[in-house]
Amino acid sequence: PRGGGAPAATATAHKPSPNLFQLPEGARKSLDDFVINRAKDMRGVMNAIDDNVNDPWDIEDVWLIIAWHFAIAKGRRKVYDYLKERDPENTVEWERSFWSWLGGPMKVIGGLWIGMYLWDNGCRVGELLEMSPFLPTTIMEQFDRGMYTLAGGIIATMATDNYLPEILTDRLGIKDSSTKLVLTRLAVVTGALCTAISSALVFGLPPKSLLGFGGIGGLTFGLAAKDLVSNFIGGSMLAIMRPFSPGEKIYLMAVGGRFRGTNEPSVGGYLVKEIGWYQTTLIPKDTRPTTVPNGFFLGANVINISRQTARIIVANIRVRLDDAPMIPKMTEEITQYLADHPSIIKPPRRPIRVHCRDIKDDHLAIRVETHCGVVKKDPFLQVQQELLLGMFDICKKNSTGPAWTVLNTVGEDNRPWLPEGKSAR
After folding, report:
1. DSSP 6
2. Mapping DSSP to helix (H, G, I), strand (E, B) and coil, where does residue 237 land?
3. pLDDT per residue over 246-259, tens digit each?
4. Which site in 118, 195, 306, 411 is 20 to 30 Å from 324, CA atoms measured?
């Protein structure tokens, strides 16, 4: 029996403990007391906040709403001007300043106060008229908490939409605008859904009713607002697939007169100014902003000219019929001239084609095709002008004159190699 009990005692003594580090009993009790006391303090703060949240609005409290409205309309700009006078080096414009953005959250708080003011005083009138049995008890008890939850969620979502792109750039080093747009929109949508769900629960809506309403309401909303949903999905796909980004130029063709196409001389390439949730803002050549619904891009062919790696140069040269023997020399010299130019992309990356392509009634046609490595439009136009003038000098040197257009009439034969006064008849 003694031998049988020893192994069990040994196993119990060497049983591993999940607590690698154990505090002394006195230290553990002190730590537990500290945590409990801080939790009680936090509970007291939360109770104090809840009491202030549920503090009813009296009729005379309307002055606070009026003062808040004045702060929104006039106070923000006065503070901005005062701070700018104190700091002349501050070059942030009003539209991009914090005080301009602050107007949105302040309007949310203003709407919150107006709603609570009307609700509390309306409930007070209902109680005086002995209408309490007909009022929703749960919503009456939770209305203030629900309104503050809703307003806080809206303000948090607005702050996410405004400051998250800057945080992604400064803290995480994300420079791509499309990636920042996708991450920001995901965060905003998540925040909006959490705000709606938490507010509904605080108002007293049962979770099962919330799920049922969300399914039926979502289906109804999707059928009633299919264009809105299509444009929202289109904006999300633009952010994910990134066919173009703000600051790039694109070509678009008009569809059914919905907006002006690139083929109009006053439009040209569209400059992408902003890709929004619902629509994209484009700036044409005449600087008239054009808004295109994002759903249009789901089935449209977009040509992004900002991402091209080269520009093609195509020239058609007319040569006199009498100068046909000089065409091989012309094409050879033009090819060599283009191959020696530093802005031309050389074969085999891109071909250089200079050939006689057609024989017309009054001239021979030489077609030139080559690619220029200069992509920016203004420098490219300078290079193209230089190349065209260089090819013109080569043609002028190897020809006897310009190939004028000849008017052909019925019954005449104007071929220059026939003797004067004779024809092929």
Report:
1. H
2. helix
3. 888 998 876 666 66
4. 411
